[in-house]
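User: Assemble these into one structure.

Assistant: Restating your components, then the assembled model:
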Amino acid sequence: MPIWFWLVPIASVVALSAAYGFFRHMMKESEGTQTMERIAAHVRAGAVAYLKQQYRVVGIVLVSLTGVFCVLAYVFHMQNPWVPFAFLTGGFFSGLAGFIGMRTATYASARTANAARHSLNHGLRVAFRSGAVMGLTVVGLGLLDIAIWFWVLTAFYGTDDSHQVVVITTTMLTFGMGAAVQSLFARVGGGIFTKAADVGADLVGKIEAGIPEDDPRNPATIADNVGDNVGDVAGMGADLYESYVGVILASAALGAAAYATHGTDVQLKAVIAPMVIGALGTLLSVVGVFFVRTGEKATQKQLLGSLARGINGAAVMIGALSILVMWGMGLDNMWGLWLALLVGLLTGITIGRAAEYFTSQGYAPTKRIAGASKTGPATVIIGGVGEGMLSIAIPVMAVVVGTALAYFFGSHFEFSTSTMSMGLYGIGIAAVGMLSTLGITLATDAYGPIADNAGGNAEMSGLPPEVRERTDALDSLGNTTAATGKGFAIGSAALTGIALLASYLEEVKIGISHVLERGNSYRFPDGSELVSTAQDQLQALGLMDMMARFEVVLINPKVIVGMFMGAMLAFVFSGITMKAVGRAAGQMVDEVRRQFREMPGIMSGAQDPDYARCVSISTRAAQREMMVPSILAIAAPVLMGLVFGVPGVLGLLAGAAAAGFSLSMFMANAGGAWDNAKKYIEEGHLGGKGSEAHKAAVIGDTVGDPFKDTSGPGLNILVKLMSMEAIVVAGVTVAVHLV
Amino acid sequence: MATYLYLSIIPEALVASMLPPDDFGLYYAIGSAKRSRGQAIFFSVDRDALDRADFPLDEIDARCVPHPDGSPKLSIYLSIYRVLERVPREALTALHLATDDGRVLTVKPTQFVPDGENRAHLYQEFCPVTPRIVSRLNPAEFGASITDGSHHVSVPRIAFAELTLGNLKNNAEHPDVDNLPYPNIGHLRDCLRELAFGSDKATKTVLRQMTDEVLFRTIRNGFFVADADGITAFPLPSRDALEREHLAWWRSAQTTFGH
């Protein structure tokens, strides 16, 4: 085992220890007054109740799928025997990361509000370091899972033979599917939960009853606060855990394939390089956390600068230190891969900046949407849809340019098909570069809902204006980081999807290898055939050879059918999740109305609303409503494979990735822009609070809620899950297909 | 149980109730079983200051009694027509402003002191008529003018509030009107221009009648009740006091949509 590999478990331990340290430090802070404690306890109880229910459902799904994989692996021998266990651990660690992050967030919100009573910097530090618990837990557990499996599998298979290294990396890739299933439930379920509560709370509480935001008399207000945690913390954490491990493992698999003929020493270095880069980024993320601090009278720009100092500091350090690590590892094409890594870092920054530009009220697009509110809600909706559609241009171009450059650098500075596998490895390294600082970027994402809940707690507890001013500033900062975080998550999913697409062909080769091992020959769609003894011939097939033999060309109807189906799925998935939010919000509206009707003491404050019932309604609705989109995502690649085989699946993945990435970015940015257009008016523009323009903007914001927090983020998981699913069932697709 | 007497100005009515002001405001804003909703503006009235010939005050003791189950009587309407003109200013002991969701802010009457600024004013009349007016006159002058019986258009007594004009108070052309929630700002500018340059009129009607709820955040200085004998001011607390001492009301007041 190359010595550099040990950096991976070391970084994991450091990240988890730092996360524990930050958690302990946060827990030593006071939760403040009795009211603050009581509100925080309500949110915590609701969040735990939701997660228990979600994990029960996900547990059933994970165990059921494990059973299916066991049958495929041990009865039909269509799959690697490690798949069921790798699948389970991926799901477990992903869920654990989300759980820890959410528990931390629910403990941190009141403490952040209380810390803001002392100073802005104190509030920022408590909130951000609590967010860092989430970020560092995700990368720490991700690296731990990778390190353990790599160590176990190399011990089991050995690394003397380059084919065995390929088998190890493609086997490990399958544990990403467990994480993907977990993240789908966390993101989509959490998204439905949070928006049902949010929309329900707004429609009845604010619009009908005239109750302000975060008012304890609103029965849905606790569910709304819970939703921020289950959607934006647990959901985002599980989502990015899956991206993180997915991209490292896909890159490792691509490295194993690209350097299969260079000897196992070179090949192993290529395999562990993505892991080592991830480990380095994790260590530097821990350092970056300490860079985040601010002064007492900090403006919004200065607060943003404080967070940027942490993230950019970590990014600059990884840019500088990774060259030393690559040199130390003696990596082939070191300069090319280093440049690919830099391209990934820059692509991530570009996507984040673009999301900020299109969703922040400081810039023209959001101001234009706000301006449209002067002529009513229809023009707000039209303006938001238009700006949202335009907003995908820069991120898509960033991914396109980043992909092309990373390919160019990875393939020894040429666009040749002969070095295609190395170019694809370069793309993988770029994706790893983009996610290398996830420990700290995810900290800023998780910070958002903590600051949001802190603001809600401060409002509900009636803290003095100077404290609420501080929590408002922290909350406002969180809104910006939430929008950029979503852009980052979606952008990373696009690069991950590309890397997984290439890895899929490697998994197909393993599937064919299993067919040959069973003593059968294998006939490709182009009519060529491999007999059972032709393992060496199979291993010698390059990516272009595989594409040719499977007739993966645009004029092949199987590919075209797959692409159309993939694009359609992105829209159908969005439609289902949007309607799910509408239905769930309707139930919440009915419940809130019922409580106001049957519990007259709520409005006078003489009677507490039944918060738990609202949490329960959102929980049940989320679990019920996420079943159809989940089944759709899990079933589509299997069915496509069973009918149209490998060309159909590749078409499906390409179509879903292209349409899903664009649609996801559109929905997230449009929703974010609508939200901030409303906030822009509330800040005292275009008539300010209570004006007709405000009323129109509120409608835009409500429409945008499921865009930005349910369907948009859910789509990138759809894309990744389908890729992972295709990889896991590649053996079945190879063995059984109709046409 | 004590009995309270309230003068509501939206709609105009004299109401007896067993509810103290905060509870009455909650009830008046959100209703009981019917779940009605709407802001309420009402005064506490000193019963002893009323003329017994004008109102059936004896009925209060007869009808405003607890229900058989012991719950307080919510409201007894004593008069609903031309009420304000029959309630002397001295009888108004406090003003209560109830938001849509039933939060109540109580303000006490004070003597009006003009700020001496030479600027335009925007007034929202509440009772007995409800137009919105721009004027060169300060609240005392405006109140005196509108209640001057020698004018063709006058009322015996009036309840009104001054609304903020923001940057328009001294300059009808000022480009920054971002935080003014009023509909048709262009028309408001026209009225202010006419006031400033167009004629010798001291007042100009901006809106003929109130069609929506007034946004409490737009109230400047406070509410006023004026008649030919003078004016009584009911000033709102400062923004800082609202933030610190009346936060719940202030937050609710900013949730309302209106004009």
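Strands of chain A lie at 522-523, 529-530.
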